[in-house]
Amino acid sequence: MTQLAATRGPGAGLVLLQTLAVLYTTGFVWTLQLMDYPMVARLRDGASESYMAAHNNMFWKVLAPGLLVAGVTSVLLALVGPPTVPLWAALVMIGLLITIMVLSGAVATPDRDSLAAHFSAPVHAHLLRVSWVRTTLFTVWSGLDAWLIWRLMR
Known about the structure:
Layout: H1 2-8, H2 10-40, H3 47-80, H4 87-117, H5 121-153
C-alpha cells in the first residue's frame, strides 16, 4: 500500500489514509451493532444504565479519531483529490459523513443518554434501528473507498 502511495503521488496517500480511517470506523460501528448494543438488553436491572453511562463516556473517544480523519480527508479529496477520485465520489463521502453525524448527534446520542438514565425496550429498539442506518452508511462508504483503491491500482 505504501508503495502504491509512493508511485501514485500524494493524492493516493490521501485516499489510503481516508480508506484506513473509514474501515476502522466501519469496523467499530459493526461491533456496536452486532455485539455492544444488543447486549445492553441482556443486562440485569441497573447494570444496563451503568454500562450505557460508561459506554457514552468512551464512545466518542474511540469513534472521533476515525471520523475526524475520514471527514478531513473527504474534504481534501473534494478540493485537491487526484484524478482517480471523481468529484461526485468525494461529495458523496461528505454527504455520508453529514448524514451519519446528524443521525448520531440528533438521534443516537439522545437514545444512548436515555438508556444511561433508565433502560427502555422501545428506546433500545429505536437505537438499534438508527444504528443499522449508520452501519449501512459506513459500509457503503467503505465500498466507495474500495472502489477508489481499485481505481488507483489500475
